[in-house]
Design goal:
Number of helices: 11
Largest sheet: 7 strands, mixed
Shape: globular
Bound molecules: S-adenosylmethionine
Strand order of the largest sheet: 3-2-1-4-5-7-6
CATH class of the largest domain: Alpha Beta
Distance between the termini: 65 Å
CATH topology of the largest domain: Rossmann fold
Low-confidence stretches: none
């Protein structure tokens, strides 16, 4: 029923028309079966989960956490508004926690009173204004499970205190930036600047919401904030995953262009030299290496 209601929404119909029906017919047929019988993992692979960017980012972090033998990680939404995005994250996280046996702690940052005043053209007052997107705090708060928490206040004031509270046992693995403004996103990006690199997964998934409309550009808004972050930070970089669509079943989805990877270059996993005798080895199918492979070691 909820699905049929959604189909009536003109934007969703437009997206299905442009993004989905432009994909090969056999993949759309397979996805009908996945929708009916698939696991959460296959539904994410086939873009069948509402807000695919959340599903992708959370699953990306789950896989990383498992590979790091971690039992928990933290996912963050900057810009909560009425909480539709946060509740969606919570719903997906609940399924992924079971699938990957990992706990997902969720933080949502917002003023609680809608958009603050824009500073200048870089905040796109052509698109957003003070007071837009208010929150019904009490209503939202009572719906939150115990793994989710709201941080109310301007990120400019709340970010440092919250960063101190991040525990390396539950490092940051996924961040969604949906604050609309350049100034707010610039402040929120400080979440990636903690001195302790173990407060992050080695590569974190990032979703940048406010980069896809016609007025958005690299000289204002979230794109400018990310550009300045990269210039100012030597060991933390936010990069475009150039091959992401090659790894996806459906390649035309808009959200693919809104994903970034946050590279934590100083994370121990990336910056400490491994103490192992084993050398990397490339098999040569033209030569019989069997039996000889073990003779290779570093010493
Ligand atoms: C577009 S809304 C977020 C929508 C939400 N992510 C969703 O998907 O439903 C943007 C939100 O960012 C919040 N915001 C913008 N600048 C902020 C700042 N400096 N500090 C805290 N919240 C801010 C606003 O209060 C607003 O609710």
């Amino acid at each position: 029923m909820a699905f049929l209601k959604k189909l009536k929404n003109i934007n969703i119909l437009k997206r299905i028309w442009i993004e989905r029906l432009s994909e090969p017919i056999h993949l759309n047929i397979i996805s009908l079966f996945v929708a009916a019988f698939g696991s959460i993992k296959s539904k994410i692979d086939f873009d069948l989960v509402i807000r695919q960017h959340h599903a992708y980012g959370l699953q990306f972090a789950c896989k990383q956490a498992v590979s790091q033998n971690l039992k928990s990680f933290t996912a963050i939404e900057f810009g909560v508004a009425s909480g539709a995005g946060l509740m969606n994250m919570i719903t997906i996280a609940k399924k992924l926690e079971k699938a990957y046996d990992v706990r997902i702690n969720i933080l949502g940052f917002d003023t609680g009173a809608g958009m603050p005043s824009p500073i200048d053209y870089r905040d796109h007052p052509d698109l957003y204004l003070k007071g837009d997107f208010p929150m019904m705090f009490e209503l939202l708060k009572e719906r939150l499970p115990d793994n989710a928490r709201l941080v109310i206040g301007n990120v400019h004031e709340t970010i440092q205190e919250q960063l101190k509270l991040i525990n390396p046992e539950s490092p940051i693995g996924f961040v969604s930036f949906d604050l609309d403004y350049y100034s707010s996103t610039k402040d929120a990006l400080l979440i990636l600047n903690d001195q302790n690199p173990q407060k992050y997964l080695p590569v974190i998934a990032i979703y940048a919401d406010d980069i896809s409309l016609i007025p958005h550009n690299e000289y204002a808004g979230a794109l400018l904030a990310i550009e300045e972050f990269n210039q100012a930070s030597a060991l933390r970089k936010i990069c475009i995953p150039h091959f992401l669509e090659k790894e996806r079943v459906f390649k035309n989805s808009k959200w693919l262009k809104q994903i970034r990877y946050g590279h934590i270059m100083d994370h121990s996993h990336r910056s400490e030299f491994k103490d192992t005798d084993q050398v990397l080895f490339i098999e040569n199918p033209y030569i019989k290496f069997r039996g000889n492979k073990d003779k290779f070691s570093r010493s």
